[in-house]
Amino acid sequence: MLSLHFWPRSSTTMSEDSMNFSDANLFTEDYFPSDYSNDTYVDDNLLCSLQEVRDFSRLFVPVTYSLICVFGLVGNALVVVTFAFYKKARSMTDVYLLNMAVADVLFVLTLPFWVVNHAAGAWVFSNATCKLARGIYAVNFNCGMLLLACVSMDRYVAIVQATKAFRLRSRTLPHSRAICLAVWLLSVLISSSTFTFNQKYPLQGGYVCEPRYDADSDPIKWKLLMLALELLFGFFVPLAFMVFCYAFIVRTLVRAQNSKRHRAIRVIVAVVLVFLACQIPHNLVLLVTAANLGRANRACPGEKAMAYARHVTEVLAFLRCCLNPVLYAFVGQKFRSYFLKIMKDLWCVRRKYKSQGFSCSRMHSETFVSRQTSETADNDNASSFTM
C-alpha cells in the first residue's frame, strides 16, 4: 500500500474480488481497474497486474535499504559520538546537527523492518511493531527535514545578520533544548495519524502493515490530508527556508573577499543541490499521486511507471540520511579533526587489549585538554558547518 509519509511499500497482493474504485485503499493496490483492454497484463475483468513491480521491489528495496541503513547509521553515529565525547555543541547549528543525527539514526533503524517486509512479501512482525515502526519512521523523517530548516535559519542569523548575531544567538542558545523539543513535538503531531491508522491486518493469505480506514471515515480526505502534511513539512517548508536563507547567505559571502568564504559558498551550493536532487523527484511522484487519487480509468502502463518511480525516488529521498553527515559535519575542518581523534582513540583501545600494560589515559587526557582549549578559543558563532 502506498504510504503518504515516505513509507516503504508492501509487496503483497490484494484480492481481485475486493478491488474496485469505492475501496478505501483504492490507490495502492497491486491490481487496479484499467481501460487498456489490449494490455497483456489486463484480464477479463480489466484488472492490471503489477506482479512485475512486486518482483522488482523484492530485490531492489532490500538491497538499497540495507545500504542506506549501514552508511546512514555509521555516519550519523559518528556525529553523535563526536558531540558526546569530543566537541561540545556551542552554537545553535551544532545543537540542530546533533538532533538531526539522532533523528536520522532512529530513522534508519526502522529500515530493517521494511527490508524483511519486502523480502518476505508480508508483514511478519506484531501489530504493535507495525505501529511503532511506521510512527518512528514518520516522526524522525519529518523531524530531520524540519531541522534542516532550523539550520538554514541559524546560519542566516550568524552570517547575514552578523552585527545582531551575538545578541540574538546569546539569547536563543540557552533555549536550544526547548526549540528542539518543540520541533520533535511538532513532528509527533504531524505524524499522529500514522500511529492511529496503521495496523497489521490479513490480506490474501498474508499480513500487511498499512493504513486502514473505516468506510464511514472518508478515506480519500484522510489520505489527502496526510499527503498534504507530508508535502508541506517534509518538503515545501524546508525548501522555502533553504532558498530564502541561503540566497542571502551567498550574497553576503560573495561581497566578502575571503577564500574561506568562497569555499563556504561551494558547500552551500552543494547542500541545496543535494536537497533538491534527493527530494524533488519523490515529491513530484507524491503530487501526481494526489492528482490521481480516486480517479477512475487509470492507464495500466502509467500505473506501472508510477509504481517503479515510487520505489526508486523513495530510495533517492532516503539518501539524505547518508549525505547529511558529510555535507553538514565532515566537510568542516573541525569535524574532520575530531573524526581523526576518534580513529586514533579506537586504535588506542585496540592496542590496549593487544599489548599488556598499554594505557590510553594519556591520549584521553590530551583529547580532553584539546577539546577544552579549542572550545575556549571558539567564538559564539563557531560551528561545525564550514562557513
Automatic annotation (TrEMBL):
Bilayer topology term: Multi-pass membrane protein
Annotated localization: Cell membrane
A Pfam family reported for this protein in Swiss-Prot or TrEMBL: 7tm_1
Transmembrane residue ranges: 63-86, 95-115, 135-157, 178-197, 231-254, 266-291
Major site of localization recorded for this protein: membrane
UniProt KW keywords: Cell membrane, G-protein coupled receptor, Glycoprotein, Membrane, Receptor, Transducer, Transmembrane, Transmembrane helix
GO molecular function: C-C chemokine binding; C-C chemokine receptor activity
GO biological process terms held by the UniProt record: calcium-mediated signaling; cell chemotaxis; immune response; positive regulation of cytosolic calcium ion concentration; positive regulation of dendritic cell chemotaxis; positive regulation of flagellated sperm motility involved in capacitation; thymocyte migration
InterPro entries: CCR1-9-like (IPR050119), Chemokine_CCR6 (IPR004067), Chemokine_rcpt (IPR000355), GPCR_Rhodpsn (IPR000276), GPCR_Rhodpsn_7TM (IPR017452)
Residue ranges constituting the G-protein coupled receptors family 1 profile domain according to the UniProt record: 75-328
Annotated PANTHER family: C-C CHEMOKINE RECEPTOR TYPE 6, CELL ADHESION MOLECULE
Family per record: Belongs to the G-protein coupled receptor 1 family.
Protein name: C-C motif chemokine receptor 6
Gene (UniProt): CCR6
